[in-house]
Amino acid sequence: MGSSETKDGSLTQNSLAWSLVSGQELWQWRLDALKMATTAGVPSKEVDWLLQELAGIDPLALRLGLFKAREQIKLRYSLPVLSQLWQHRLRERCPVQYLAGVAHWRHFSLRVSSAVLIPRPETECLIDLAIETIRNIPTPELGPRQWADLGTGSGAIALGLAEAEPSAIIHAVDCSAPALAIAQQNAQKLGLAERIKFYQGFWWEPLEHLKGQLNGMVANPPYIPSGLLSQLQPEVYCHEPHLALDGGSDGLDCIRELIATSGDYLRPGGVWLIEIMAGQATAVTELLQQQGSYCQIQILPDLAGIERFAIAQRATPKALGKRAQG
Ligand code: GLN
């Protein structure tokens, strides 16, 4: 069986054969992998996470060794290939989610590859904030709620919104074709493909035809200052797409672009909601204020209490007129 690896450590088609191993063999493999994890400073819980994904054994059975007596266990790869993957985790610091090709986010099991950022737990709150806002703001006009997810990556945010708002149409944009392919697969798998439209392009560019019609936009744009990238964990710096991380010299390049352009696409009262980095709250608030098309500007924390989200609304022309006069 071939076991050629791609850059992200995932395996090519010819190595995707399932194999059968004995419980005893897998039990020994797990013990060795745990030892190697400790030596390499990798959290040992990742061994069980990987085995859960690739062998379908639940965490308790793994911890208690309940699988040891099983005659046969169906494993996604052969044991040598599994060992090769684990080495890639330990030596190259490849994130375990890329090795398994899966990330868990909210209650979704999402396909991921090194073409997309692994969706982070803190980003889960974006969906709750969007839902809360949708519930609180009466939609200015009737009709389906149209939202945009700009820089969709794995599609996580678009999927979260589509699922939470069954009447919404989500326009999901990404400049990366491989990322869009992953997002589309996720939408298909979760049965949400009918309400998510995918577009390749930069930010609002492919949504020209929707100017003035969006009820809201959500984005987790790249916001890390270029100079800080190399200080991120090697899992992030060496394996995750810089396209999704690098926000230019002060980290605000894409945020500035989204502030400058979104006013033309949102309906009056439409919601502008993005994730930001710790320390960017003041600058983002000022940029939103200076731009002049937004009102109700707020910064909200994530579950760790870090100022993580910026939210605003497209001001109505009336409010803008008043501001201009006063
Ligand atoms: N939160 C991500 C990280 O910590 C960065 C995501 C982004 O730049 N939008 O790596």
Report what the structure shows.
α1 (23-40) packs antiparallel against α2 and α10 runs parallel beside α11 (281-291). This protein is an alpha/beta fold. It folds into two domains: 13-100, no CATH class; 104-325, Vaccinia Virus protein VP39 (Rossmann fold, 3-Layer(aba) Sandwich). The chain starts with 18 loop residues before the first strand and ends with a helix. The radius of gyration is 22 Å and the shape is elongated. It contains twelve helices and eleven strands. Residues 1-5 have low confidence and may be disordered. The strands form three sheets. The protein has a seven-stranded mixed beta sheet, sandwiched between helices. A two-stranded antiparallel ribbon has the order 1-2. The protein has a two-stranded antiparallel sheet with strand order 3-4. The structure holds glutamine.
What is the CATH architecture descriptor of the largest domain?
3-Layer(aba) Sandwich
The chain-level mean pLDDT equals: 92
Low-confidence stretches at least 5 residues in length (pLDDT < 50)?
A: 1-5
Radius of gyration: 22 Å
Helix content: 25-40%
List the keywords.
7-stranded mixed beta sheet; 12 helices; elongated; disordered N terminus
Task: Give a concise summary.
The chain is built from twelve helices and eleven strands.
How would the blueprint of this fold be written?
Layout: E1 19-21, H1 23-40, H2 45-55, H3 59-64, E2 73-75, H4 79-92, H5 96-100, E3 102-105, E4 108-111, H6 124-136, E5 146-150, H7 156-164, E6 169-174, H8 177-189, E7 196-200, E8 214-219, H9 234-237, H10 253-262, E9 266-275, H11 281-291, E10 294-301, E11 307-314, H12 317-325
Parallel strand pairs: 5-6, 5-8, 6-7, 8-9
Antiparallel strand pairs: 1-2, 3-4, 9-11, 10-11
Helix pairs in contact: 1-2, 1-4, 6-7, 10-11
Bound molecules: glutamine.
Glutamine binds at residues 120, 220-224, 236, 245, 275.
